[in-house]
Amino acid sequence: MNVLFAASEARPFIASGGLADVIGALPKALPEAGCDCRVILPLYSDIPDKFREKMEKTAEFKVWLGWRNLYCGLFKTVLDGVTFYFIDNEYYFMRKGIYSFFDDGERFAYFSMAVLEAVKYMDFAPEVIHCHDWQTGLIPAFLKLFYSGEEKLANIKTVFSIHNIQYQGNYDMYFAADVLGIPENKRGYVEYDGRCNFMKAGIDLCDAISTVSPTYAEEIQDPWFAWGLDRLLREKKYKLSGILNGIDNEAYNPGTDTDIPSTFSKYDLGGKAKCKEELQKELGLEVNPDAMLIGMVGRLVSHKGLDLVRAALDRILEMPVQVAVLGSGESAFESFFRYMQEKYPGRVSFVCGFIPPLAKRIYAGSDVFLMPSKSEPCGLAQMISLRYGTVPIVRETGGLKDSIKDVGGMKGNGFTFQTYNAEDMLDAIHRAHALYQNRERWKEAVLNALSCDFSWSRSAQEYVRLYERVLK
Prior knowledge:
Radius of gyration: 23 Å
Helix content: 25-40%
CATH architecture of the largest domain: 3-Layer(aba) Sandwich
CATH superfamily of the largest domain: Glycogen Phosphorylase B
Distance between the termini: 12 Å
Shape: globular
CATH class of the largest domain: Alpha Beta
Strand content: 15-25%
Oligomer: single chain
Strand order of the largest sheet: 3-4-5-2-1-6-7-11-12
């Protein structure tokens, strides 16, 4: 079975968030499940030279976008056994950064059309094109509109994955005519609530829809979570499924990780205590093995539940705990954590930005990992924290609900709370601290965390079954 992933980012080439983790890791797991999976991306200027130097140019052709006749180069490289293709157009992609440009709609409309045109020049015949998020939502529409008569493309099926429904590629309807070149009688392909919506096109015209967790697949049919697309998703429920993301167990391995001060495993926990001690030193926290260290890593934005943390942090610090935060985002939250660091020297540390090696040291050195998200399609941080024996405290939403079960149950691997409420979050932290004070029971919780398996192999099998259903 041949599958082509179309996406706007992938590690290690270019990344801004969790989408890049998925596109960088899942294709490596699919061959074991019987699938030849390849990936196609834009050739951004920010892709490091060490990767660009190993690319070969395999084709050059023109791409029609509306009235525009545009250059496209197709490059190719192989990394970790996976073939990656790159769409080259310096006008659209030779810029600093990935997103937030005034013409993002046109850039990713071009990419979507170029992906389909590139298939004709590949040494590969995809049976399924797996499109990821709004940036590739037009591929199913363009395939039906402009390529249904092309021999190599006529029988291709499409899967559209929603990683975050908040970002939809939403533009005025003039865009459908002027940029996309869609005939007037076909503009319903992209129209939703009077707007041109890339994600709507993907959802409506693909052969199957997937999301990154079973719970998120249910949540996005609810107006509270769907950012206006709930009506469409309830209508298309028959082709909607949720498959929980995984993590790369090789990239996150406490037994071999060179970014942490001491390796460890469930058979020898001594290195985890060393990781905590060294993290406390690095972040200017009091070196105290008895203080429960709460880690947080991620974007500082409201849907991550940081208003709950802001409301409760003073009361959290009434317990003998420490807090280590790494992230950047909304200025109000950055200012808050800077203030708390000054207010509680030696007990609160805040590092603004995203530093992957430090993130790993926080995962490895913390005792618990706090994720009180208002919404979380899947979440990878809670899985990574388990991999490093750090017990998660999460709100039951999206992938957090699917991956973390409360220790009050038979198979608990963390602490959970249901309602979006600071008091309920505080109660979960109190319960975690009470267990932490019982060292024997806490060791059991750590060993249970280290025993969890969220590798991509399980998810890969589910995706192959989805592709098989689509092809039938």
